[in-house]
Amino acid sequence: MKFPAFAYVAPTTVAEALAALADDDDARPLAGGQTLLPILALRMSTPTCLVDLNGIDALKQITLGEDAVTVGAMVTHAGNAASAIHREHVPLLSEAVPFVAHDAVRNRGTIGGSIAYADTAAEMPLVALALDATLIIAGAGGERRVAAEDFFLGHYTTAIGDGELLTAIEFPLSTRRWAFEEVARRPGDFALVMAATGARIDNGRLVDVRIALGCIADRPVRARAAEAFLEGQAIAPATLGEAARLATADLRSHGDIHASADYRRDVGARLVARALNRICGATT
Ligand code: FAD
Fold first, then answer.
1. pLDDT, tens digit, 9 for 90 and up, residues 85-117
2. 149 φ, ψ (degrees, to nearest 5)
């Protein structure tokens, strides 16, 4: 199908983009277009104006700071995959981003578009939650910073308000070992379930444990009971197995045409086990 008619503006600064969004209540930001354009073609959305962010160079930077790596919203998945800064300081992002779609989509699709769209089956929202990222949002009232924990509100729903733009994602410099695991029908498909685990290993014990799951609820979730159980524990197969079981035991998972809720809980636990074993295996 052809797109519905819409006006098109191509700002070169964030201020111009915000002004264009403020001018028209039905305007929508256009990033890589890998999700938005198919939605328009299917007439699932009919915005009156597209505000194309591709000409805003300030949104395309990856910056290494003292405490964090700041990734502009318009950095593409391919740009993140190629980043040496990420490999050293945000290794979970480097490991997860090749699971996003295929080269053609990764060349155009952006981290900002992916996080703003908040598909529960998308990798970047899970990475943002697991890493305690801060989402930087610009609007008429200035800039605000939202913790990933408070940003994802449900299926396709985030803390970004009308007329606002996600401008950057700030990732704290990594101090943990990380592992990412995913099951999808075919390489490049959206995930059926995915898990990210992180920890430091101190004298054979796991500390600062982080376990997060994606595509298992209406937003990426932390497995807090499993994290608390593992904290300070010595590495042992039975302990890791129990943590993996706890990770999905109390989760209210969702079933859909792709996988049942039980499948997601069962496979989610297995992915957590695999990811924990990878982190710990590297020390033995
Ligand atoms: P767009 O499509 O341009 O925008 C998406 C939405 O976000 C729109 O509503 C737009 O208005 C809004 N938006 C965009 N940028 C901003 C911003 N800075 N501030 C506020 N709102 C904004 N993704 C995965 O994670 N995993 C996959 O396996 C995967 N497989 C795919 C397979 C195919 C065949 C295709 C076509 C896409 C796939 N995707 C997958 C989606 C892909 O990652 C997209 O890049 C991503 O979902 C949207 O990013 P985008 O830059 O293309 O955003």
1. 999 999 999 999 999 999 999 999 999 999 999
2. -55, -35
